[in-house]
């Protein structure tokens, strides 16, 4: 695949339901850039933990599972497949049991150490090949890629986020009320923002973008505008370091 228009790394952080995943994939696709969903990596480790019958709150046991899990994740916005060994877990990682336990698993320091090292390696490789990558998660601008030339922290009201998550779940065949989803969203926020290692928070130099009143195209247009303001978008840019 030839280098695209994006120069460097776009770090997209924020809690669940802000439109992060959809807009990250669309932005990467629009610019011919790579794409990395770091949350999918933690979800895959959670699948491995649950399959092994390990208590997600047992840090040592969870770390041992993470160390031996053969995790593979796609870096194309059109094919972001997630595998454990040869087993495609792209759908399984979005299940309710994984969602319930992923915060506990991702809070384990050794898990984060392993995943961050892997994420940085992927970023370096993709930027070398394609010139740029859009990376989404909860600690991209603060930990994974602190030197990213554009860091954006997406926010939205709790009601808007719960509504979006409920619609996403319904589209995937998972039924829940908005009240139930809001409760889960708030639980995830609390766990992710209070964990000791890499808590959810905006980087000091991140642009904060409230998506409550914006649709996906509106968010995408804002991001493209920010890239243009910073001179990070061009025609068939040369691949280089981030």
Describe the protein.
The protein is an alpha/beta fold and 242 residues long. It has a single domain (8-229), classed as P-loop containing nucleotide triphosphate hydrolases (Rossmann fold, 3-Layer(aba) Sandwich). The chain is built from nine helices and eight strands. The chain has helices spanning 20-31, 38-51, 59-68, 96-106, 109-130, 140-144, 158-171, 178-194, 216-229; strands at 8-13, 34-37, 71-73, 82-84, 87-88, 132-137, 150-155, 207-210. It has a five-stranded parallel β-sheet with strand order 2-6-1-7-8, sandwiched between helices. Strand 3 (71-73) and strand 4 form a beta hairpin. It is globular and about 50 Å long. The relative contact order is 0.23.
Please render the helix and strand layout as text.
Blueprint: E1 8-13, H1 20-31, E2 34-37, H2 38-51, H3 59-68, E3 71-73, E4 82-84, E5 87-88, H4 96-106, H5 109-130, E6 132-137, H6 140-144, E7 150-155, H7 158-171, H8 178-194, E8 207-210, H9 216-229
Parallel strand pairs: 1-6, 1-7, 2-6, 7-8
Antiparallel strand pairs: 3-4, 4-5
Catalytic activity: dCMP + ATP = dCDP + ADP; CMP + ATP = CDP + ADP
Subcellular location: Cytoplasm
Enzyme class: transferase
Task: Give a short overview.
The protein has 242 residues and is an alpha/beta fold. It has helices at 20-31, 38-51, 59-68, 96-106, 109-130, 140-144, 158-171, 178-194, 216-229, and strands at residues 8-13, 34-37, 71-73, 82-84, 87-88, 132-137, 150-155, 207-210.
